[in-house]
Amino acid sequence: MDYFLPSSKSGCGNGGSTEGDLKWWQLSLIGVGCTIGTGFFLGSAIGIKVTGPSIVLSFMLAAFGTYVVYNLLAKMTAEDPQDGSFCYYAKKAYGQWAGFSCGWNYWSSNILIMGSQLTALSILSQFWFPSIPLWLFATGYAILSIGVVFTGNKGFDKVEDLLAIIKTAAIIMFILIAAAALFGLFNLDTKQVILPNSPKKLFPEGIKGFWSSLIYAFYAYGGIEVIGLMATRLKKKEDAPKAGVIMLILLVIIYVLALGLAVIMAAHGAFNHKESPFVTALESYNLAFFPHVFNAAIIVAGFSTMTASLFGVTTLLVTLADDGDAPKVFSKKIEKLKQVPLPSLGLAVVGLIASIITALLLPGKIYEYITTAAGILILFNWTFIIISALKLLELKAWGKLISFIGIALILAAVSGTIMEKSIRMGFFISLIVVLLIGVISVVLQKKVWNKAS
Q1: Please, which residues have CB within 8 angstroms of residue 226's CB and are 6 or more apart in sequence?
Q2: How far apart are CA 123 and CA 44, in angstroms?
Q3: What percentage of the chain exceeds 90 in pLDDT?
Q4: CA-to-CA distance for 182 and 179, rounded, in angstroms?
Q5: 213-241 CB burial, b ≥16 within 10 A, e <16
Q6: Is the pLDDT assigned to residue 10 strictly greater than 60?
Q7: 414 versus 117: which is more confidently predicted?
Q8: pLDDT at residue 236 tops 90
Q9: 403-406-411 Cα angle (round to 5)
Q10: At a CB cut-off of 8 Å and minimum separation 6, what does 3 contact?
């Protein structure tokens, strides 16, 4: 998935403008490019490992939950267009504590997402250099990403659309090659297709495994909340829900086709978090070029995603500081450094360093833990979007029912992480973050905000 670039005027940012220059189909295509990321390329391997072929069903359920969130956010944006964070709606609905909690939860989730992407890039790089430790790769990618931030937004904006195309093209390439391999077009001895023709084969890890896989399906759709805010740039604001529906249909087709082919081309036990499931699926076909080309495409796309996240958390902290939800020092910008908010960037770098240290200490499990925690924090923010809409919008009975179904799916995804031992630690990491933000908001409510009002 790709992330929030508030100051960007193209690519995956929110545009910083309400000029109304986008057609609905353009928003749909931008959404597809922005949402696809290493959460799908690599994180889906964990989902397949914990549930098997039923991961396809997980992605379908997650698509519905994602639609609920996008649709409600698009309606709020069309009714009250705001260029800032979606946390504006939380603050409008429930007060400053909600805006504060939403903002810092989103900042924290992006810090974890950067760690997740950083770890993913390092794991993928070990495909070529297995003897080099994760933390060394992580350090190198972190330095490169920080360097991009110091160049300003213009250079990054020029390549963002291209990188989005690379991510989408990589999946389409797999679908075409996999289909060709299955039909024997490479004149190779193909293995028998592994069709899950019984409940046991479809759910080899049982309902518990399926339940636990939901978080990874939702994680692959992460970033959809940012595209909801881009509805302010539509020529016709009322087209926002239609743009979201088409975007999700395209994503579901791409995701389901790719994952469906992957799970019938390799045994359930062959998938692991250290390798993209699409590379695993084609291993038996001896296509020497594919793993290298596909791995390179994922690394390029993942680096784009991580750098976008770094831009996002840096700019978001400036917004929080301007709104009084963070110390004013974080809003300071250095003119000689192309208006880079150095204090805000510095705090984000601390998060990156923490990720590198953690990768050094826990090289075997860190990706699963961080990915799980980041996914849960994203879903907490999605819950904020739904409950804000329930208060701010005049929804009919059917709209309210759909909203509550969305909340139920989110709760199912979050609670499912407790069921699986290998990812349970991610739940507790996210819980610590949420409790910490909650305690701080309570203290500020009593000592600052109540006095100010």
Answers
A1: 3, 4, 12, 14, 34
A2: 14
A3: 26
A4: 5
A5: bbbbbbbbbbbbbbbbbbbbbbeebebbb
A6: no
A7: 414
A8: no
A9: 130
A10: 12, 110, 113, 223, 226, 305, 308, 309, 311, 312
- Classify residue 95 as left (phi > 0), alpha (psi -120 to 50) or beta: left
CB neighbour list of residue 373: distance below 8 Å, 6 or more residues apart:
112, 426, 427, 429, 430, 433
What pLDDT, on a 0 to 100 scale, did the predictor assign at position 293? 86
Let me know how long the chain is: 453
* Residue 14: pLDDT over 70: no
| Contact status, residue 402 vs residue 68, Cβ threshold 8 Å | yes
Side-chain-side CA neighbours of 316 within 13 Å: the count stands at 30
pLDDT digits (tens, 9 = 90+) for 155-181: 555 556 677 778 788 888 889 988 888
Mean pLDDT score across all residues of the chain: 82
pLDDT (average), residues 410-429: 90
Q: How many CA atoms within 13 Å lie on the side-chain side of 133?
A: 11
**What does the alpha-carbon distance between residue 106 and residue 87 come to, in Å, rounded to a whole number?**
9
CA 450 from chain centre, in angstroms, equals 35
Its sign, for the CA torsion 34, 35, 38, 42, is negative
Closest CA to 149 of 293, 17, 283, 337: 337
Cα dihedral 367, 426, 429, 72 sign: positive
Contact 210, 413 (CB under 8 A): no
DSSP 192: P
Stretch 28-46: mean pLDDT: 78
